[in-house]
């Protein structure tokens, strides 16, 4: 058996210290996980694997839907429905729909079999959100007050504009833009403040994007998500807490974002008002941590693109080497240990890509939220300030 990865222990300890700041009964509910074995991108996950990571993070529930299926979705949806039924209520199924293939009939079939919502992936299935069949899907969600998780990464024409129009026209539909809505986050936060049924999930890794989401979008519009198996509940749970604390959100509000609000919505409740968007952190960041984040973002981009991340990782680690009396030294020492773990895995690329990227994005998250301490001495109910 392979020895435990020291980075996993470090990240787990850091996450648990942060999670202890939330109310003890926080009902963590992941809004975005996948199972499946046939996605052309090569990522795979079983329901047992999803449940094991939920257990590792101490999370209760997850919405689950299938990864991409080149041969269509009815059989894959049946598999997900069976996985949810066998999970003792911990997994709740979403039906993945292809608007090119009689989607309303498939949605109704799956809803009758126990699905609690729908999933759309405009890029994978090559459609736009103004397509007539998409409007029919959203009309059904409006009628039944259903969530629709919508992939909202890069490269999808008019996704944000069309989704805003659909949200206005169909107020009963709960439209959830995945991946922090990064395709349109530069402007869509203004519309989100006026549309109670437009939501964003936190299934993303870039700390700058997440901080922008948490600062500009009201907390009642943000739902915790991991994107497993692409993401991880421990990292994404830590990201929710650190980014929320960095913009001044109260732990009780974070508990609603972590799962309480999603539970309420699935029970048929109206969207909750959890207060206004808090705006950016009140104090400008110190000068050194942003350098670490910049180099790490470059390293992740290189690694994901098949390039060599060793130089930007080395620069990021050097940027952590501040004097011992620097107030940011404790935070940057944690980031440096994570960067060292990423460097140690570089020799095995591309097979070790996740062992490089995981520690790198975790270090960027820590360094990118310098107003939040990395120890467990912060009392619940206050912002953690280093």
Short description:
This protein has 386 residues and is α/β, with parallel strands linked by helices. It has helices at residues 6-19, 47-57, 74-85, 103-112, 122-125, 132-144, 159-169, 185-192, 207-216, 233-246, 251-266, 289-304, 310-319, 329-344, 353-368, and strands at 29-35, 61-66, 91-96, 117-120, 147-150, 174-177, 198-201, 222-223.
Distance between the amino and carboxyl termini? 39 Å
The CATH architecture of the largest domain can be named as: Alpha-Beta Barrel
CATH homologous superfamily label of the largest domain: Metal-dependent hydrolases
- Contiguous low-pLDDT stretches (5 residues minimum) are 377-386
The chain-level mean pLDDT equals 93
Count of all domains: 2
Alpha plus pi helix count: 15
Our Rg estimate from Cα atoms comes to: 20 Å
Describe the structure.
By secondary structure, this protein is of the alpha/beta class. It has two domains: 13-266, TIM Barrel, CATH 3.20.20.140; 289-368, no CATH class. Helix content is 47%, strand content 10%. It has 15 helices and eight strands. The protein has helices at 6-19, 47-57, 74-85, 103-112, 122-125, 132-144, 159-169, 185-192, 207-216, 233-246, 251-266, 289-304, 310-319, 329-344, 353-368, and strands spanning 29-35, 61-66, 91-96, 117-120, 147-150, 174-177, 198-201, 222-223. Strands 1-2-3-4-5-6-7-8 form an eight-stranded parallel beta sheet. Helix 10 crosses helix 11, helix 10 (233-246) packs parallel to helix 15 and helix 14 runs antiparallel to helix 15 (353-368). The longest helix has 16 residues, at 251-266. The radius of gyration is 20 Å and the shape is globular. Residues 377-386 have low confidence and may be disordered.
């Amino acid at each position: 058996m392979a020895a435990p990865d020291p980075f996993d222990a470090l990240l787990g300890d850091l996450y648990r210290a942060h999670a202890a700041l939330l109310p003890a009964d926080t009902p963590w509910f992941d809004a975005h996980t996948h199972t499946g074995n046939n996605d052309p991108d090569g990522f795979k996950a079983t329901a047992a694997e999803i449940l094991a990571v939920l257990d590792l993070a101490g999370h209760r529930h997850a919405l689950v839907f299938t990864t991409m299926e080149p041969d269509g979705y009815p059989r894959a949806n049946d598999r997900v429905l069976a996985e949810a039924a066998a999970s003792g209520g911990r997994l709740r199924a979403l039906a993945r729909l292809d608007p090119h293939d009689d989607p309303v009939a498939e949605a109704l079939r799956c809803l009758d079999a126990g699905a609690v919502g729908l999933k759309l992936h405009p890029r994978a299935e090559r459609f736009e959100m103004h397509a007539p069949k998409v409007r029919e899907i959203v009309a059904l969600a409006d009628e039944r007050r259903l969530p629709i998780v919508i992939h909202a990464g890069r490269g999808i024409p008019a996704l944000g504009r069309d989704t805003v129009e659909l949200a206005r026209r169909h107020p009963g539909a709960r439209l959830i833009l995945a991946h922090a809505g990064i395709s349109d986050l530069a402007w869509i936060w203004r519309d989100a403040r006026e549309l109670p049924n437009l939501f964003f999930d936190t299934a993303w890794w870039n700390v700058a994007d997440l901080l922008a989401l948490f600062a500009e979008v009201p907390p009642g519009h943000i739902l915790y998500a991991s994107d497993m198996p692409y993401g991880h509940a421990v990292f994404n749970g830590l990201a929710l807490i650190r980014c929320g604390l960095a913009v001044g959100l109260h732990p009780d509000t974070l508990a609603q974002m972590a799962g309480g609000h999603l539970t309420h919505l699935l029970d048929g409740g109206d969207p909750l008002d959890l207060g206004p968007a808090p705006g950016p952190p009140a104090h400008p960041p110190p000068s050194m941590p942003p350098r670490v984040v910049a180099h790490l973002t470059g390293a992740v981009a290189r690694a994901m693109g098949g390039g060599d991340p060793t130089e930007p990782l080395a620069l990021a680690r050097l940027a952590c080497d501040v004097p011992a009396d620097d107030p940011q030294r404790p935070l940057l020492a944690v980031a440096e240990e994570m960067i060292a773990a990423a460097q140690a895995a570089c020799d095995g690329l591309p097979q070790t890509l996740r062992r490089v990227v995981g520690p790198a994005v975790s270090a960027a998250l820590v360094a990118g939220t310098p107003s939040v301490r990395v120890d467990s001495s912060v009392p619940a109910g206050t912002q953690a300030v280093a």
